[in-house]
Amino acid sequence: MWAPRQRHCERQRRNPDEAAAAGPKSGLLPYGRNDGEGGALVFAYVAPPMNAKAKQRAWSQTAPAPATTPAAPTPAPLVAPVGALRFAVEPGHSGERLDRYLGHAANERRLALSRTRLKAMIEAGEVRVDGAVQRDGAFKLSEGAAIAFEAPQAQASAVAGEAMRLAILFEDAHLLVLDKPAGLVVHPAPGHANGTLVNALIAHCGASLSGIGGVKRPGIVHRLDKDTSGLLAVAKTDAAHQGLSALFADHGRTGSLVREYRALVWGEPPGKSGVIEAPLGRHPRNREKMAVVREERGRHALTHWRLEERLGPASLIACRLETGRTHQIRVHLAHIGHPLLGDSTYGAGFKTKAAQLSGPARAALETLGRQALHAARLEFEHPVTGEALKFESALPADLRMLAAALRL
């Protein structure tokens, strides 16, 4: 499946000090991991433009397989708090802050109460300690202190619901999974105050939304760009939201999450699979874009890729994220010289390559009007019921049409 090809060479067997001594022109950052005894260190290439040899290395170098560790015990699912809640401060917790204690105590009972929500309740005067209202989260507790409050009621969302047709693949009382079409904005924002996925979900879910962070709204734990299509999981309750948030924050490194994207890219990547590892941050001149930057200015980002089909001047690849940075796949692929077809933000320099396409392929690309990226596979363990959920989404019609035209 995702077993990467290992490549060993003396040039890669460099420690971080040697990489630092080589200087910025070497293209190597002074950090990496070792693939065991005699194995290759994995470095990120961050100094564009890249020559052909650097491009080859960036595609074909692979990250070491993670060490096998015993699986951590699966915690009990979270449950929604109901009615009057009472806690007695146990021995050993004397002197602890009120907000921190409640966070730990709620987690031990597996109550779906985030620390942010608990802090808001304290500041609103909804929490009593030994019968007195306590609004200070830093209040130091004494052993045996009695803490009491009512389970919070969710407030109505300020976002209006709008009826839209949605492709719902799965739905229960806790969450749903849908297939988002390209062109649909996920969250309301300046310029998109309505007509978003959140508007549609509020109308669709109605009274079944029990509250995310105290507000009756859908919990979006991972995002797809407006012009990216595919699978999206949405929480309907605080319990599901916290569980999904933990899964997606882990990105499948230790948990059950699997996310796979399919993309049409310019060019023919060498080999069958590999890893792109390069830190991402805001573009130094265009703050609306992301870019590969030096380690101290960005966040670690790692993308696995696998070649699925060569299509003349383009290729169909699959991508799996080990981190979840904004525009990660788009920036990483552009960085190593194979941007997404149709990506006007990160692949603008490849517009002239359209002339290499056949007439049908050129027409299909012009009709596409978006980046050729689709969230095709999503697997995770249900955060409340423990059920194993698996979903797949075929390429939508516009990407199928483009792929078919490229095969001509």
- The overall number of domains is 3
How many strand units?
A: 18
Report the uncertain regions.
3-69
Instruction: Calculate the mean pLDDT score and round it.
Output: 81
Structural class: alpha+beta
The best one-word shape is elongated
Pattern of helices and strands: HHEHHEEEEEEHEEEHEEEEEEHHEEH
Distance between the amino and carboxyl termini: 28 Å
**Number of continuous helical runs:** 9
Give the radius of gyration: 25 Å
Helix content: 10-25%
CATH architecture type of the largest domain = 2-Layer Sandwich
- β content, as a range? 15-25%
- CATH class category of the largest domain: Alpha Beta
Biggest sheet statistics: 10 strands, mixed
What is the CATH topology assignment of the largest domain?
A: Pseudouridine synthase
Notes on the structure:
The chain has helices at residues 16-22, 52-60, 98-108, 115-123, 197-205, 238-250, 328-335, 359-368, 397-407; strands at 84-88, 128-129, 132-133, 146-150, 155-156, 168-171, 175-180, 215-216, 219-220, 229-235, 258-266, 273-277, 280-282, 290-292, 302-311, 314-321, 373-381, 388-392. It has 408 residues and is α+β, with helices and mostly antiparallel strands. Strands 6, 7, 9, 10, 11, 12, 15, 16, 17 and 18 form a ten-stranded mixed β-sheet that branches. Strands 1-4-2-3 form a four-stranded antiparallel β-sheet, with no helix packed on it. The chain is elongated and about 75 Å long.
Summarize the model shown.
By secondary structure, the protein is α+β, with helices and mostly antiparallel strands. The chain is 21% helix and 22% strand.
